[in-house]
Amino acid sequence: MSPPSTETEATIARLEREMWHNGIDLALLEHYQRLCREREASITRRGSDDRCEFLVVIPVADRPQQLRDCLASLLCLCRTYAYGGFVQGRYPKIAVLIADDSSAPANIEQNRAIAANFTGQGLETRYFGLEQQGGLLRRLRPDECIRLSGVIGDTAQGSTPHKGASIMRNLSYLKLRDLEKRDRRQLFYFIDSDQEFKVRVDTPGGERDLYAINYFHHLDRLFAQTDIALLTGKVVGDPPVSPAVMAGNFLSDLVAFLSRMAAVRPEQPCSFHKMGPGEGGEAAYHDMADLFGFKSLCDPFQYRCTLDGEHDQAACFKSFAGTLSHFFDGAHPTRKSYYEYQDVLASLRPARTVYTGNYIFRPEYLAYFIPFAPLKLRMAGPVLGRILRAELDERFVSANLPMLHKRTLRQTGQSEFRPGVRRTSETCDISLELERQFYGDLVLFTLERLSALDHPSQPLSEAGITGILNETLANLYREYRSKQSRIAEGLARLSALFDDGAHWWNQREDLGEARGNFTAFIGNIERNFGAEAKGYALIGPGPNREQRLKAISEAILRYPEDRAAWHEILARFQG
């Protein structure tokens, strides 16, 4: 096949740069998309197409609406850019595997129907549910199941729902081994069900979610022109971290919001539309960004009103109050991230963290399973990333190919399902999520110290590992307790400001619901981060800590055995 002409490629590349020259030019974006489709049509007419094929894997647990939205965005991306063409009613170079970890029968049936629906629209979508997972597990011998328990958990009862995202990914790796073509043109692309193939752009008229990246074309070019083993993108929109590590800076932003509101009259035109996005950079949402090598921020971010049309300050107050509960599902109303253009090839950098909702790899790197999956901790991506960085060096990279992350549904303001979050009509308990975050951080920072000592290449004794684990625990626990104190200070400032009877929001009957939203939020912050918070009890001295430390120590010790067993299974587990 003759490739598209150099002139065509140069025109498309130039147009891509020009449309981002000063923000986003929507007219040029439409022209760019049209030229990309014309290029694909030209390739189809010429016959053979030796570019990469993509199998997009979407682990999902009880999120049928978010799964549907995710797949709808993928189908729209295929229609917008037409990578690989549309041949005999299907997109031949794009396929999907839904890895279902759902529990509710109604959600399982919806997910099956969703797969069938998108297949009918030309996007081949395979369903990998409990029944299919059970069939795959039955191909393992009993001794293999035992040896793989540190990778895929206890499979004595077959495949059960809510195994956790990491175990679900590892099971999917076994399924992908079946689907492997032993062809370097095949790529496996893992994404999350609460993401879409769009980017959020900050424009003078407000936020826009756009199909502005030709993902598959760029990825094909990167893997064709370089010796990449695994590539990770990032996300824009909602943060990729837990609310357990965002409360401190959000309280700072809320205090700034109410202070500004207290200085205006409620009937004045809204003044929260001309606010800058905040100079935060990466990890601006994270209370302990410095622990991860990012700059910690002191100055608060200003809220940017999302209401359209003319409205007053009171309307903005109501609108913002309505978003407060979204925080406990992982949204951050004041510290969102937006796409900033950079040429994809020029953006390649050595990576150290895998964003588990956005990573792509060649089939031979199925060998790198998600480590310590049965622990069901957060930070699985950073933990895997540290291992990849040590072993793959510069073949493990990141690129400027983010996806849009949407924690909540527009209809409800909540996530469909979020492990570690317990809700009632008025309360939200994230204690289990805080616990999973803390011990996930503990594993990450322990591994960093062990890696510096060349473990596991030079294995340490159990006593040596335990000593480093305990030292890391002591330091991390101090950081978490310090953060808890800062949250208490911020909550005191917010409560005093909010409760002040002299402020206008406490004097208007029409703001009762908005005041109720603030009151509920303040109560939930106290419940989850106050002196009696259950999450901090779970990470403090006691039985839960002892159990976690024992499980983590054992998992680190047996990791070399897990890898050996995994490699043996992969060697025979195909077809």
Terminal residue distance: 30 Å
- Sheet with most strands: 8 strands, mixed
Structural class of the secondary structure composition?
alpha/beta
Beta-strand content: 5-15%
The gross shape turns out to be: globular
- Helix content range: 40-55%
Tell me the number of strands: 15
Q: Total number of helical segments? A: 17
What's the architecture of the domain at 51-238 and 340-409 and 561-572, going by CATH? Alpha-Beta Complex
Cα Rg: 25 Å
CATH names the topology of the domain at 51-238 and 340-409 and 561-572 as Spore Coat Polysaccharide Biosynthesis Protein SpsA, Chain A
Q: Low-confidence spans: pLDDT under 50, at least 5 residues?
A: none
Strand order of the largest sheet: 3-2-1-4-11-8-12-10
Name given to the CATH homologous superfamily of the domain at 51-238 and 340-409 and 561-572: Spore Coat Polysaccharide Biosynthesis Protein SpsA, Chain A
Please give the CATH class of the domain at 51-238 and 340-409 and 561-572. Alpha Beta
Global mean pLDDT: 91
How would you characterize this protein structure?
- The chain has helices at 6-19, 26-46, 64-81, 105-120, 130-137, 142-147, 149-152, 165-179, 215-225, 247-262, 313-321, 380-392, 431-452, 462-499, 512-529, 534-539, 543-572; strands at 53-60, 94-100, 124-128, 186-191, 195-196, 199-203, 206-210, 230-232, 235-237, 349-350, 358-361, 396-398, 403-405, 422-423, 428-429.
- It is α/β, with parallel strands linked by helices and 575 residues long.
- Among the domains are: 1-50, no CATH class; 51-238 and 340-409 and 561-572, Spore Coat Polysaccharide Biosynthesis Protein SpsA, Chain A (Alpha-Beta Complex), CATH 3.90.550.
- The strands form four sheets. The chain has an eight-stranded mixed beta sheet. The protein has a three-stranded mixed beta sheet with strand order 5-13-9.
- Strand 6 and strand 7 form a beta hairpin.
- Helix 1 (6-19) runs antiparallel to helix 2, helix 13 packs across helix 14 and helix 14 packs across helix 17 (543-572).
